[in-house]
Specification:
alpha+beta; Dipeptide-binding Protein, domain 1; D-Maltodextrin-Binding Protein, domain 2; Dipeptide-binding Protein, domain 3; twelve-stranded mixed β-sheet; four-stranded antiparallel β-sheet; Peptide/Ni-bd; SBP_5; signal; Peptide/nickel transport system substrate-binding protein; SBP_5_dom
Length: about 450
């Protein structure tokens, strides 16, 4: 049996969605997403065939042949229909409503045997992005959502402590919940586990571990600072650009993150739909930033809000941002929020200060634009920036049925947002794990999920 250290061990209720990589690791082994997501494109999952009508308003999805839960009962499209209807009322880990109800407002669902049809009042070609976040569980005899359709089956589950999985080939995996990265590393060195995940969270960042195989994976997450576009300094587009020009991202990643990051160029990561490797990097140009600050009539006093964690080393990142911005003419005070769930709720209520450090986790370009950028949607994470060009391009992209056309339109939006920033773009984290030498078949994907071959 191979023993693995995760930060958490749990299976959440069916109507709870999470972006926690430890919980998603277990979900991806025991269950299957309705569709898989890979570098911005859908791939077969629990449904292995799908089509979209010419008008973009009717999706037809078919379950893979023989799909069954681990108790032997067959999966029916009706199960997926009920799941989707229920999850539209879901809340995230902070108690904030997810956006699924808004995306699917006015939608209707029909299920017959292995076929699910989803009808939307307007074209919705990005629906596969949403379905890639939905994992279909079934309750076991103890009322736990541990019965899935994936390659690994739950053999023993002690919520919050450990879970043992087995596959058809007779292999066994045991996952232990070890909350601290330092404790996970100690367990690996002591031989209590053979693999430890999320070592990017060590107090002192590491890039290798003597005597062990070390893995690093750039992720889809974006570490950013939201800008208050409704009032104050960052209601001025020139000052939003100035702040971005003032940040030395390479030095931030090196000095604060120990090298564990990729400089951000726009609102999403290199893995997102529409991203191009040719997208221009945001230059470090303090002289240009100072010139823009000097030319603006807006106030230069800024309140920079930060949590203690999520993202990692948030207070240290805030101090770095403060120094960069003050060097080009801003005056920055830092407000530290100790209640992380409360902080998220405050940002959702637009109590942002002028800048607020946060992370953006959706792997869907559509979701980031709709939830956080579009002034037409004005969703919970939108912070007041109005950009008519982006709104018009996004409306065209989100209704474009042809995938290549839609990707090109998203690419244009991302390039525009790189040059005309709505947020302070910082970096995309790199996740790390270490394993005992000779232990093969384990990797991290861009969501930070542990994959098992």
């Amino acid at each position: 049996m191979i023993t693995i250290a995760l930060e958490k061990v749990d299976f959440l209720p069916a109507d709870r969605v999470t972006d926690d990589a430890s919980i998603l690791t277990l979900k991806n082994l025991v269950m299957e997403p309705m569709l898989r997501w890979e570098n911005g494109a859908p791939r077969p999952g629990l449904f292995d065939r799908w089509s979209l009508s010419e008008d973009g308003c009717r999706w037809t999805l078919t379950l893979r042949e023989g799909a069954a839960y681990h108790d032997g009962s067959a999966v029916a499209a009706e199960d997926a229909k009920c799941f989707i209807e229920a999850i539209c009322d879901a809340r995230d880990m902070f108690g904030m409503p997810w956006s699924y109800a808004r995306y699917l407002e006015g939608a209707s669902f029909e299920a017959s045997g292995a076929t699910l049809e989803i009808m939307t009042p307007k074209p919705f070609p990005d629906l596969p992005d949403i379905l890639s976040e939905f994992y279909l569980p079934k309750l076991d005899g103890a009322g736990q959502p541990t019965l899935g359709t994936g390659p690994w089956q739950v053999k023993d589950f002690d919520r919050g402590r450990s879970v043992t999985l087995g596959d058809a080939a007779g292999r066994s995996l045991r996952f232990l919940a070890i909350a601290g990265a330092g404790e996970r590393l100690s367990a690996l060195r002591a031989g209590d586990v053979q693999l430890a995940t999320h070592l990017e969270r060590l107090e002192t960042p590491a890039r290798s571990l003597e005597g062990y195989a070390w893995h690093e994976q750039a992720t889809t997450m974006s570490v950013i600072a939201y800008m208050n576009g409704s009032e104050g300094a960052f209601s001025d587009p020139a000052l939003r650009l100035a702040a971005n020009l003032a940040i030395d991202r390479a030095r931030l990643i090196d000095e604060v993150m120990g090298g564990l990051g990729v400089p951000a160029r726009t609102i999403v990561s290199p893995f997102h739909n529409g991203m191009s490797p040719e997208l221009a990097a945001i230059p470090f140009d303090p002289e240009g930033a100072a010139r823009l600050v000097g030319e603006s009539s807006e106030k230069r006093e800024i309140v920079l809000r930060t949590p203690l964690y999520m993202p990692e080393r948030a207070p240290e990142t805030a101090a770095f941002i403060r120094d960069c911005l003050q060097a080009v003419g801003f005056s920055v005070s830092i407000d530290i929020a100790e209640d992380r769930p409360g902080y998220a709720r405050e940002l959702g209520e637009k109590r942002t200060g002028d800048l607020a450090i946060f992370d953006s986790s959706p792997h869907s370009t559509f979701r980031v634009l709709d939830d956080k950028i579009s002034s037409r949607s004005r969703a919970v994470w939108w912070q007041g920036v109005e950009d008519p060009l982006v709104d018009a391009l996004f409306e065209e992209a989100r209704r474009s049925v042809d995938p290549q056309t839609r990707t090109g339109l998203y690419g244009g939006i991302l390039a525009h947002l790189g040059a005309n920033p709505h947020w302070l773009y910082l970096y995309h984290p790199i996740d790390c794990m270490a394993r005992k030498p000779g232990l093969e078949g384990f990797s991290l994907d861009p969501k930070g999920i542990l994959r098992v071959a």
